[in-house]
Write a structure and sequence with these properties.
Order of helices and strands: HHH
Structural class: mainly alpha
Helix content: over 70%
Radius of gyration: 16 Å
Number of strands: 0
Length: 96
């Protein structure tokens, strides 16, 4: 493994740890709240874009193990589900 691959592997490990310990639990909490009808806060909207970009970037890395690939897919799916439900919730609260 060359220096670039070692650096990339270290970045992947750090991002996976961040997602596992912080971002995934937060996304699951937001998803539960969206399912209950709450609208996204401004801060949550600002969080989702960079998380999605990072997940898509990670998805392009060839050396991800299966567990990491599953986590990346779960993050991307959760963000999509959250945004879909947020749009639904927003439409329900907006008078016609």
């Amino acid at each position: 493994m060359d220096d670039r691959e070692q650096t990339e592997a270290g970045v992947v490990e750090a991002v996976i740890a961040q997602w596992t310990n912080h971002d995934l639990p937060l996304l699951l909490q937001i998803k539960d709240e969206m399912d209950a009808g709450r609208e996204l806060t401004e801060g949550e909207m600002e969080l989702l874009g960079p998380l999605l970009e990072r997940a898509q970037d990670m998805n392009r890395l060839a050396h991800l193990d299966d567990k990491s690939k599953e986590l990346v897919a779960k993050i991307i799916d959760l963000i999509q589900e959250i945004t879909d439900q947020a749009v639904t919730n927003e439409n329900k609260s907006t008078p016609e």
